[in-house]
Amino acid sequence: MADFKALLATKGEGGQEVEWTQMSEDELMEGDVTIRVTHSTLNYKDGLAVTGKAPIIRQYPMIPGIDLAGVVTKSASADYQEGDEVLVNGWGLGELHFGGYAERARVPASFLVPVPKPLTCADTMAIGTAGYTAMLCVLALEEHNVTPDKGPVVVTGASGGVGSVAVAVLAKLGFEVAASTGRTAEAEYLRALGASQIIDREEFNGAVKPLGREKWAGAVDAIGSTTLANVISQMKYYGCVAACGLAQGFDLPSYVMPFILRGVTLQGCESVMAPKEKRMEAWSRLASDLEMDKLKSITSTHPLEDVVDLAPKILKGEVRGRVVFEVG
Question: Alpha-carbon distance 111 to 319, whole Å?
Fold first, then answer.
């Protein structure tokens, strides 16, 4: 079988190492569908996996990359035919199952989502797990009756991948969006996405009060820890916080008062094992509710080889918006 290039992570006595290598299709893991990968992307989780800064990879050797999109080349599933454009987010990709940083992939058919029209494979990776997670958060707010007439919503980590897409989608849906970021130089970038207010992240880093002044009808939080606790304290009656990240930390130094005195909901948004119907809904909504010109404005395109250099940068907050890797 033809060889293909892959980024392979291995672990020895000196710790984790990654290197580019040539592999053959018969070295791929089991699955119903083989894919010629055309595009992948970079998420915070990928940065942790490639650098080895956190134990994201749970089995070695491993091809990292929690997202991929491409074209079916072989299929033993009735649901997918040769030539179909498909994408994968999560399901242990890049952790327990060879991931997207390679020119070929083989996965169970249950992992796959058809690329929704009019999106292209490149578009889906510009969105990636970050944007797909952002839409899961938007759906969570809607499920808890957070509507534009209820008041403003806040997005933390707004200049990152999740935050950028969340700002753009919420603004398109008619919300007044406050964007919290540690990079206040990105104010114009965030306003172009639809943010009506820019908040320095330090405003959410102070001592947490049991109850703060009511400000937000809804929130999308990708930061966790003290930031999330302060956001919770400022929620309006029956507001909802969709929490999906822990860039600041996985602790929550909060109080129960917002929950029992204001009826606030803290809704966790999990993307890796989300059921297929939820994935299909999220991707369908992204195809209709995310403006393509805004998506392009927050996306930079790189060859796949750049992933090793960009991985540590995303951990330092030096990557704005979304990254698309062209594969092959």
Answer: 28
